[in-house]
Amino acid sequence: MRQNELSPAPGSRRKRKRVGRGNGSGHGTYSGRGCKGQKSRSGFRMKPGFEGGQLPLIRRLPRKRGFTNIFKINYSLVNIDKLNQFETGSEVTPEGLVAAGVVKSLRQPIKILAGGDITHPLLVKANRFSAAAKAKIEAAGGTVEEIGHAAETN
Question: What would the pLDDT profile of 131-145 be if each residue is shown by its tens digit?
């Protein structure tokens, strides 16, 4: 077998549809576009979501509108009552929270919330604190330190 003797597999190559070449071709007169109307005109292009002038689905349903903010920062939330498991006067860091099983991973920055009460003083380091959580930690004799996060420095 030589290169010039090769041919494509049967049925793998089809001839191009040549419209508007007489009625004997089967695609004459209207060229497969039917009679009249918007879709039969030359240059017609339907926009995505267009429903023939009817109010489109995307405009009928309010829940489908809007956008997703790509700059939103999702925090791992920790209530201060979870900090009671740390020893008095110890330093609570994001790594320490992961080791204690309070937070699953350090992928997201950590925010301390004011849920519950704290009973002893701690040095708490996290990315964010709610105002009430900061007040409760300081009222218990502890200190608060905000550390930066790579996603927040944009």
Answer: 999 999 999 999 999
